[in-house]
Amino acid sequence: MNRNSVVAKKKFGQNFLKDETVLRKIVEAMPHNNNKLVEIGPGLGDLTKFLVDVKSVEAFEVDTDLCKLLQSTFKEEIATKRLHMNCGDVLQAWQSSLVDEPYDLVANLPYYIATNIILKALADPMCKNILVMVQLEVAEKFCANEGEKVFGSLSVITQSIGNAHIIVRVPPTAFEPQPKIDSAVFLIQKNADRSDENFEDMLRVAFKQPRKTLMKNLAVVYEKTLLQEAFVELNFTLTIRPHQVSAHDYHQLYKITRSLDGRRESGNTNS
Ligand code: SAM
Questions:
Q1: Domains, the chain
Q2: What atom in ligand 1 is closest to the CA of residue 18?
Q3: Taking Cα atoms as reference points, which of 173, 187, 86 lies closest to residue 132?
Q4: Residue-wise over 140-152: b if at least 16 C-beta within 10 A, else e?
């Protein structure tokens, strides 16, 4: 099999990036450090070619046909340990950490599991930076600021761990075969560990129905009097919507509701 006879497999989200300007923009946006590079879904190896020139790469490719092709294309890089190929599903390989040293994830991700992969990378303490191509709509959610309509739990989780911004928008014509949607490359630079699971549970409740008020969403799960006390302390109006609250204030809300809840529970125990 050679690269000209490859037929893209839809079930693996294969849209190969052909535009060399975009490939170069990805490489230019890579943070400068000594971290290893991890590439998920090297495909035909067009991005990999640039990456192995910069650093050593740990790559994960699910498609066995492509894996064989990559092993022959990059024979020399594999022999000199510039590239290590892992053939199989990256989600299965991902236990607590994907690799056992600090790494940056650089990839044109398969869109059907892109959000899942980014959340795993955010939670992985060994992952330090995330530079990925995804569908534009998803990139905008990760990079949104409070007040923007698409600001949601993904934006709050990201802002709790680091900062994110879009590097470049990419039209369907940059790919072969062309996807139906626009794409974007974005960068998350992590500077903290992931927040706890209970905080993220609260976010899911807060953004369950984004057009409703924050109070209405939270009241489905939390006690209303407790929420009212927290809203007064934080100067939130009763009509505030979930996307109008900053990541910092979500952390404050979480702390206050926990401490009020704790106080109430110890009060109940004493009575
Ligand atoms: N990096 C290449 C490029 O830029 O042209 C290909 C990108 S293509 C959007 C996504 C790649 O991810 C494909 O090569 C696909 O086979 C691979 N892939 C899909 N699901 C995967 C999984 N669960 N684990 C590892 N690789 C996967």
A1: 3-190 (3.40.50.150), 197-270 (1.10.8.100)
A2: 5
A3: 187
A4: bbbbbebeeebbb
Residue 133's DSSP bridge partners are 108, 185
Pocket of ligand 1 (CB under 6 A): 12-17, 40-44, 46-47, 60-63, 66, 89-91, 108, 110, 113
Question: Taking a C-beta distance cutoff of 8 angstroms, is the pair 40, 98 a contact?
Answer: no
Kindly give the confidence (pLDDT) of every residue in the chain, 271 residues in length, as a single tens digit, with 9 standing for 90 and above: 788 888 899 999 999 999 999 999 999 999 999 999 999 999 999 999 999 999 999 999 999 999 999 999 999 999 999 999 999 999 999 988 899 999 999 999 999 999 999 999 999 999 999 999 999 999 999 999 999 999 999 999 999 999 999 999 999 999 999 999 999 999 999 998 877 889 999 999 999 999 999 999 999 999 999 999 999 999 999 999 999 999 999 999 999 988 876 666 666 544 3
Q: What is the pTM (predicted TM-score) of this model?
A: 0.94
